[in-house]
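Workshop exercise sheet. Pairs work together: one partner reads the sequence aloud, the other fills in the structure field after running the prediction. Swap roles for the next sheet.
Pair: D.N. / O.F.
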Amino acid sequence: MKISFRLNGEDVSVEAEPTMRLLDVLREDFGLIGVKEACGEGECGACAVILNGRLVHSCLVPVGAVEGADILTIEGYRGSKKHQVLMEAFAEAGAVQCGFCTPGFIMAIEALLRRNPHPSDDEIREAISGNLCRCTGYDMIVDAVKLAAKKGEGLW
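Structure field:
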């Protein structure tokens, strides 16, 4: 089945079984490996993308459900000023170690800051609650989000 959607600002289409996971299509058909496979159950956030303005775990989304949708992956976000601000804040706050979980966290934080450019600690923790990090620790990630919100004033 031919499925058409907008991916990182470009109109694309793919021939795929509609029940295939969006995660697999992004990685295999489009070569977008920043979207990671980890738990495969929507528990870890490594496969997070923004679908029609909402954060979703792409391992839970059948590709047939994205017909006509707008999808943003970490690859499409990377060139933006907002990404630069977030990565600088992550580095400054010591919120990155191995980096495996970072793309999913960045996408979750982008979704949060779009809705709320000045979140409280509790709002940040709630927004990143679907993401797992085994290396860094969540306090440093919360600090990085607050720093990014301050440094990126007016971006979100």
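Discussion prompt: The mean pLDDT is 95. What would you look at next?
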